[in-house]
Amino acid sequence: MSAAPQIQADAAAAAPSRTVGHFQLGECIGRGASAAVFRGLNLLTGETVAVKQLRQEGMASQADQIALEIDLLKQLRHPNIVALHGFEESGQHLYIFMELCENGSLQETIRKFGKVPEQLVAIYMGQVLRGLAYLHGQGVIHRDIKSANILSTKDGSVKLADFGIATRQHQGAADNTIVGSAYWTNFLIECFQRDPSLRISASSLCQHPWLSNSMVAYAR
Ligand SMILES: Nc1ncnc2c1ncn2[C@@H]1O[C@H](COP(=O)(O)OP(=O)(O)OP(=O)(O)O)[C@@H](O)[C@H]1O
Question: Are 175 and 214 contained in the same domain?
Fold first, then answer.
């Protein structure tokens, strides 16, 4: 969830071997502004999952947003969308159990391996667009498409994640609000100021850092 600064990731509270519901937590595999993400083992099936841990303290103001993310993810089933298995409240934390994407985000992939060849960008984009087409078919607008929110599995599939600021499109209503991550949003505002009729596709913009390895091109 991108817009949740109050919620602090608390990795220390989830020591390895801690059990939440029927999931055992393992090592921390990622961290965002609001969450820590752990590898988890489903003790009933043996399946490995990702467990997103959010601190409940100060969450009241974010409760609607979190409920929305869980509600949206639960209903979505597509090979290019991260599947949600369930959630659990335990102690001071909320835990969201999700499909594990072993390779983490595409942002991390670019950090580790540098720029991506055009041929692979085309493969990633094809999958991102299939995920987006599915979402739009369900009336869901993601609103924060960026490399950090596109996760990849070890077989090379990519999946859209992080529905913290996603919204449902009401029939006939256009969504003209600009939301999302700062550097992305600044660039979009700049483009809209130049030509308000311009339709900017966030998914197309993702390709720029993939091809150039320039992550902060639009930072302000
Ligand atoms: N399903 C998953 N499988 C594997 N790794 C994941 C998964 N979900 C998240 N991660 C890892 O954890 C990191 C942080 O997760 P996420 O971006 O959801 O946190 P956040 O705090 O909600 O994000 P933000 O910083 O945008 O607010 C990701 O960048 C990714 O590396």
Answer: yes
Q: What is the pLDDT of residue 46?
A: 97
Whether residue 149 is found in the same domain as residue 57: no
154 is in an annotated binding site: no
pLDDT tens digits, residue range 139-153?
Answer: 887 777 888 889 999
CB 130 within 8 A of CB 80: yes
Name the residue among 87, 78, 68 with its Cα closest to residue 166.
68
**Predicted TM-score of the model (pTM):** 0.77
In terms of domains, do 213 and 110 share one?
Answer: yes
Q: How many domains does the chain have?
A: 2
Closest atom, ligand 1, to C-alpha of 162: 18
Q: Is 71 a catalytic residue?
A: no
Bridge partners of 36, per DSSP, are: 31, 53
Ligand 1 close to Cβ of residue 148 (< 6 A): yes
Q: Which domain holds residue 109?
A: 104-219
Q: Does residue 117 sit within a domain?
A: yes
Q: Do 161 and 127 meet the contact criterion of CB atoms below 8 Å apart?
A: no
Question: Measuring from atom 1 of ligand 1, which residue has the nearest CA?
Answer: 100
State in Å: Cα 190 to ligand 1 middle.
Answer: 28
Is 8 part of any domain?
no
Q: What is the pLDDT of residues 157-188, one digit of tens each?
A: 999 998 765 666 554 445 555 545 555 555 55
Name the residue at shortest CA distance from atom 18 of ligand 1.
162
CA dist 63 and 55 (Å) reads: 11
